[in-house]
Amino acid sequence: MPSQPRVLQVLNILSACLLLVAFGMVLFYAPIERVMGAVQKVFYFHVATAWVGMLGFIAAAMTGIAYLRTQNPKWDIVEVAAVEISLVFFFIAIVLGSIWARPAWGTWWTWEPRLTTAAILEMIYVAYLLLRQGIEEPDRRARFSAIYTLVGGLSIPVTFLSIRLFRTIHPVIFGSGLGEKMSMTTPMYVTMFSNIAVFSIIFSTLFWHRIRLGRLAEKVEQLKLKFMP
Amino acid sequence: MARLQNIDRRQLSIVHRPLAGFLKAVAAIAWKDLVAELHSRELISAMLVFALLVILIFNFALELDVKARATISSGVLWVTFAFAGTLGLNRSMAVEKDRGCLDGLLLAPVDRAAIYFGKMISNLAFMLIVEAIVLPVYSVLYNTKLFNPGLVGVILLGSIGYVVVGTLLSAMAIQTRTRDILLPILLFPVVLPIIVAAVKASSGFLQGLEMAEMMPQIRLLVFYDVIFIAVSFMLFDYVVEE
């Protein structure tokens, strides 16, 4: 098995260090928010993981299109990696959101639009994995997966639209809405954006590892076909 | 010149007017399904019985007293339609695949999109027929007035969206190992915006609210329908190619 490229080894260490830095920033650098208190700090990781997860899902849809156009199996490997990693990141975002919600809203979960659409999104990509499980031939599996990322991914903007249509109690930072606005000071903005950057790097590292794993699995499949007919 | 006379004039007209050929193919496929259903009546009877049983179960599952009915009816109806619709979609595609009809259709010189639209129209017809029967039965059983043109419009829009995505996904699902179980798993998350908007709009109409209140939901339904008709018929090619 080819050893990890230099860049990846560096990324491994960088990701681990940056994660610690991000923790440090959130705990010590960012001020305590006036209204919500210390629990608000969960928000930095929540936004970072949610944002990165969302980008990962969009990347999955784009690699789906790339596969359908080129029929090149490497896009399929990238697509699975994107979906799997994003699934975990987005789930972390949902759990962190629940942790924030309990003291802030008094409940772990509420069926307001944004959370509901987050749950739907998770279900779509879990369904994606189940779809892949049910197909043996690699070519058909890749094709159907690509189609489902497109169809599932297109419901993302539709569900975002539903946030505008229905009333929401989810805090809104950018843009107008009926939600409560959080006032943010500069250190908070700095913390938020650096967290997003850190989690993007962590995502890229895990993504790269998953792609390597996918390539290795493909090699194993080919060897199996050669020696075990 | 002599050779030209042997060609059937109708075939020539299809070659020179592709849209007419396309529509003819769509109509032929939809008609085939409807006529087959007329003879056997297996799809609609299964969907109908299932829908009525679901309504029966809801009678015991939910407290459908007079006050709750206006708000809950739309939810009960849409859950019923969603589950019965899954049945119909599954059977409709499975029959095509198992009897080799799908292969035959793919060999025919028709646009793949025509196959998609034909199946979509017949699936929509089955779903609408079942809904048309379930609505009066529900209103009789629960003494609720359901003869509301707004409600009918919402059910139409919602069914279109449901069937549009359902036809594409059922074509995928029947080619997998897990077949029947997979379609609801694939379909429901994607079609949830329709259910959400349709239930809200339906209950709005049943409660007699102002049209303006339901407009956002209706707009969402139309938007969803338009987008997914476009996406689905473009992707159908990739689903059925060998």
Give the assembly state of these chains.
heterodimer
Q: State the total count of DSSP E strands of chain B.
A: 0
The count of helical stretches of chain B stands at: 10
- Low-pLDDT sequence parts of chain A: 175-179
Low-confidence stretches of chain B: none
The gist of it:
Chain A is mostly helical and 229 residues long. Chain A is 77% helix and 0% strand. Chain A is built from 6 helices and no strands.
Describe the SSE topology.
The complex is a heterodimer of chains A (229) and B (242).
Chain A: H1 6-29, H2 42-70, H3 73-105, H4 113-133, H5 138-165, H6 186-227
Chain B: H1 2-6, H2 9-16, H3 18-40, H4 42-61, H5 66-98, H6 101-107, H7 112-141, H8 149-173, H9 179-206, H10 211-240
Helix pairs in contact in B: 2-3, 3-7, 4-5, 4-7, 5-7, 5-8, 5-9, 7-8, 7-10, 8-9, 8-10, 9-10
Description:
- The complex is a heterodimer of chains A (229) and B (242).
- Chain A has 229 residues and is mostly helical.
- Chain A is built from six helices and no strands.
- In chain A, α1 (6-29) packs antiparallel against α6 and α4 packs antiparallel against α5 (138-165).
- The radius of gyration of chain A is 20 Å and the shape is globular.
- The relative contact order of chain A is 0.16.
- Chain B has ten helices and no strands.
- Chain B has helices spanning 2-6, 9-16, 18-40, 42-61, 66-98, 101-107, 112-141, 149-173, 179-206, 211-240.
- In chain B, α9 runs antiparallel to α10.
- The A-B interface holds A 68, 116, 120-121, 123-124, 127, 130-131, 133-136, 140, 143-144, 146-148, 150-152, 154-155, 158-159, 161-162, 165 and B 165, 168-169, 172, 175-179, 182, 185-186, 188-190, 192-193, 196-197, 216-217, 220, 223-224, 227-228, 231-232, 235, 238-239, 241.
